[in-house]
Amino acid sequence: MAELTLDTARKILDAALAKGVEKKLKPLVVTILDARGAVKVTAAQDGTSLMRAEIAHGKAYGALALGMGS
């Protein structure tokens, strides 16, 4: 598996946030982990609710542990 670079992680993050705006979703937090499970990037849009960052991290970690996308 290719290593996830910071530049690639930022591009994924920007695309995910843009898709949320396009779909008119409530404010998002996006967390991207590397293959070790370490946070590569995370960002929260203005107006996210309490605990949203923790939920995003848990969802990303669970997907990684199960070998699935989220």
TrEMBL record:
The organism's place on the tree of life at top rank: Eukaryota
Signal peptide stretch: none
Gene3D superfamilies membership: Haem-degrading domain
Pfam families for the chain: HbpS-like
TM regions (residue ranges): none
Protein name (database record): Heme-binding protein
UniProt source species: Chiloscyllium punctatum (Brownbanded bambooshark)
Upper classification of the organism: Eukaryota, Metazoa, Chordata, Craniata, Vertebrata
